[in-house]
Amino acid sequence: MKEPKILLVEDDTAGREMGLFNLRKAGYDAHGAQDGAQGLERFDSVRPDLVITDVKMPGMSGMDLLREIKKRSDDVPVIVITAYANVDLAVDAMKAGAFDFIGKPFSRDHLLLVVEKALERKRLGAEVRSLRIKASGIERPIIHRSEAMAKVLEMADRIAQTDAAVLITGESGTGKELIARRIHVRSNRAEGPFVAVNAVAMPEQLLESELFGHEKGAFTGATSSREGRFRKAEGGTLFLDEIGEMPHNLQAKLLRVLQEKIIDPVGSDKAVPVDVRVITATNRDLPEQIREGRFREDLYYRLNVIEVSIPPLRERRSDIEPLAKHFIDVHGMDRELSVSEELMEVLSRHDWPGNVRELENICQRLAILTRDGKIEAKDLPASLVAPGATPAPLERGDWPPLPEDGLSLIDLERRVIERVLALKNGNVSQAALYLGVPRHVLAYRMEKYGIAKK
Length: 454
Fold this sequence. Notes:
The protein is α/β, with parallel strands linked by helices. It folds into four domains: 5-134, Response regulator (Rossmann fold), CATH 3.40.50; 147-311, Rossmann fold, CATH 3.40.50.300; 314-385, Helicase, Ruva Protein, domain 3; 396-449, Orthogonal Bundle (Arc Repressor Mutant, subunit A), CATH 1.10.10. The chain contains 19 helices and 14 strands. It has helices at residues 13-25, 36-46, 62-72, 87-95, 108-136, 147-160, 176-185, 204-212, 228-232, 248-260, 286-291, 297-303, 320-331, 341-349, 355-369, 382-385, 409-423, 428-435, 439-449, and strands at 5-9, 29-33, 50-54, 78-82, 100-103, 166-169, 194-198, 237-241, 262-263, 272-273, 277-282, 306-309, 338-339, 374-375. A hairpin with an 8-residue loop joins strand 9 and strand 10 (272-273). Helix 2 packs parallel to helix 3 and helix 17 (409-423) crosses helix 18 (428-435). The longest helix is centred in the N-terminal third of the chain and has 29 residues, at 108-136.
């Protein structure tokens, strides 16, 4: 177990050195700072578990430092010390979020007792918070073995402690929403809601209402007011998936929200303040869309304060085996299933254009269809068994002759859509591109024919 890290901010050199000596002798990883400004800098770099600060210091006072620390990380306890102990100052410190207040001079044992209590309170708080998060079901397991994915998770954990806007990029099926959920549950907003919205899952007018809410009578069918997803995410995180598909006029409204921290419900002339962290994701090349005039450059820079890029599965093949075993266990319905080495070799060779989502679909099929509990390479679809094989594209020569007694155009269209979706591993955007129609047109046809997304 790592030693707890403690930051001691004290302008008196002798007092600081003595405090650091006592803390280190007690087994703590202690770091020092000579004033409030340096203390804030060290806080950002060291990420301590506890801060001890003097009140009277040149420049930034201990009270100012306390307030700044609480803005950055409210769960880090702060102990305030001073030679000018009085009741009013103690009350002010506790109101500002201090864990405890002790006056100089104090004994080594007194200091260590307060430190121990503060760290124990933090530990218990973290346990309660973890249990609440697990009970909420927000976080999902991220199975990995590769160094590339380990770096992605490390970066996600670092930026979780900030409130910066995050843009998650990567191919369809790489797990962008999983990363967004991970950032949320490791942030100071973890006990707030996590609200996910797909920017192309609904028509433009409905999306505007869904995001920003609307007033009763704002449009036909608006029989009551609706608060919208931004207000539902108040105090938490709003995840906007496929942001590259957002209509241009809604991009302007989203930019206003990010700049002003307010929303304008449809049909209302009153702006509503919101406190929401926005995380977005896309499988599109947004700089290319900016050059084509399909995405706002100013919005891009607002969203892309920090970019987290998830590599495709073919670039982290060491993740395939643990992922496959995990998915087979999940979909095995508590049966004891064995997986052959040959099967794993075939899975590891495949490029997985649909990434983790495609791999899970295959593993679910294998787990469901096996009869004797043994899953082997021969159970795989032909396109995977043949190394490097991919599904054959639709060609005009593939079509059979037209039947003499007629056919249903609706049925034919439905079957074509289903086949192209299978070819594109359920990716609606790629299927729409293949068919040469706008994505919302394909989404409408899918809903019309009852074709579910995979």
